[in-house]
Amino acid sequence: MKGDVGGGKMVMKSKLKWVGLLGLVLSALSLFTHFLLARYSYSDSNNLTTEYQTITTIFSWRPVFETNAVDLSPTSKLYRRLWGPVRLLESLQPHAKPREHYPVPVSESDRFIFVRIRGGFHEIRSSICDAVVVARLLNATLVIPEIQSTTSSKGISAQFKSFAYLYNEDHFMSALANDITIVKTLPKTLKGARRKKEIPSFKVFNSQSPYYYLHHVLPVLKRHSVAELVVSDGGCLQAILPPDLEEYQRLRCRVAFHALSFRQEVQELATKILLRLRAPGRPFIAYDPGMTRDALAYHGCAELFQDVHTELIQHRRLWMLKRGIVKGSLTVDSNAQRLNGSCPLMPEEIGIILRAYGYSWDTIIYISGGEVFGGQKKLIPLHAIFENVVDRTSLTTPWELNKIYGREANLVDKYPKAPPSAEKEMKYEAWKTSGQRPRPLPPPPARPKSYHIEGWWGWVAESDNEPESTVIELRTNAHKLLWEAIDYMVCVEADVFVPGFDRDGKGRPSFASLVMGHRLYQSATAKSFRLDR
């Protein structure tokens, strides 16, 4: 009797185990089926292409579109108003070729112009265009310009040399072969003089006149056969040249729109991003916020922000006032500046304008630019208005971005921390030999002073000077040039371009201005908004 009872219990336990196992299998199968349905049902229902399905599964961006969308066929009236070409500008065609007698440069010149360029992406690009014109004006051979932000001392890959970090050197030289003579390095006889700092150097300010070069630089160039130009303000020649130098103005266009081609890796990644943006089969908007700390400080827009950001902008404005970059007072009525159109439009204002113009909430918007002061939280209102707001990070993998940087050294190992001071060592030794145990714990090590780019910068309250950039920060600044190069290509090819601001931290044309100029030259009918701020 006891044996039967025990056997019945064993059978019951065995059945329960099988039931539990079956339940687990069914649960796993249900979860797997639910996962597949959730992942693919949307794309299947909208008949998206295989390439688009691959993009949505690899990258973080999964666009959401309205199921009952309005008619967006190219022939519809709404499409023509939102995305169509500007008919009034159809007669404008790009033409930067010489139109008068334009002699070919001397193949062997005994005069060399060496240019060192400092600044951001748009300043570098403008300075290179002006350097070519100056070399032609002085009938000198131009040495490939040196971009200070991309030298090997900034911790970047050793496989790129300054200019080649951003641009294609060979294409630059061949595209301008009929305009000026370009060499990659100085002759051996002049290299030593440059190392010893024996060659004459000119610190050139923005918008210098041709008279300055013909009457100040040219006599020195004739005596020494070489002259160095240090350009730090973005552009070393006046924007509008005299009528008799009209061909030099066209030369600027040939440099900007034909000779300055990004290196292959940058072009390939920008092309991939464009393909991924166009994969859903819809046009997209490129939006450049233009909200940099320098621009906000220069134009007195501190009160548009809150708390620490206002203080950071004011700190930068004080720095500009001391160096004569900006004139006026430290305190500026930001609301008056904003109503005057001297401040950038905030992302939420751009969103409201676009919605009011007729763009639907599922429009694809690509955010360009290297810095949005205030961080990603400033873009939250725009994300609330439009569903498909993306940037380069959501359309690329970390591996693809790292590939364009090249092989970079491990800065943590290459630049070790400084050893502890002798005073700290003496305190620790004194603690080890002092008194009987138990004794108090040793003093904790001093916390390193650090700051975060989007949070509170502790040095604001401690010093008028900003902390010196670390090698890692210098490397990041070089990376930002590549990011802006990618964004530049995307913005030029976008269906619509919207600038939030078109002035930089010195009151001069910014990244957005370069994009609008390139779009006007390449395709005058491409839609670019010039908003009345």
Tell me what you see in this structure:
This protein is of the alpha/beta class and 533 residues long. Helix content is 45%, strand content 8%. The protein is built from 20 helices and eleven strands. The protein has helices at 2-45, 50-58, 77-82, 121-137, 169-175, 188-195, 210-224, 246-259, 264-278, 293-298, 308-322, 334-339, 347-357, 380-385, 392-395, 398-405, 411-414, 422-433, 471-493, 511-522, and strands at 112-117, 141-143, 146-147, 182-183, 201-204, 226-231, 284-288, 364-367, 388-390, 496-499, 527-528. Helix 5 runs antiparallel to helix 8 (246-259), helix 9 (264-278) crosses helix 19 and helix 19 (471-493) packs parallel to helix 20. The chain is globular.
- How many helices? The count is 20
Going by helix content, strand content and strand pairing, the class is alpha/beta
CATH topology of the domain at 93-261: the name is Rossmann fold
Distance between the termini: 95 Å
The major beta sheet can be summarized as: 6 strands, parallel
Q: Helix fraction?
A: 40-55%
Quick one: CATH class of the domain at 93-261?
Answer: Alpha Beta
Instruction: Report the C-alpha radius of gyration, rounded.
Output: 30 Å
Q: What would you call the shape?
A: globular
- How confident is the prediction overall: mean pLDDT? 80
Overall number of strands: 11
Strand content: 5-15%
Flag low-confidence runs: 40-57, 413-417, 449-457
CATH architecture of the domain at 93-261: 3-Layer(aba) Sandwich
Keywords: Carbohydrate metabolism, Fucose metabolism, Glycoprotein, Glycosyltransferase, Membrane, Signal-anchor, Transferase, Transmembrane, Transmembrane helix
GO biological process, one term: fucose metabolic process
Pathway: Glycan metabolism
Subcellular location: Membrane
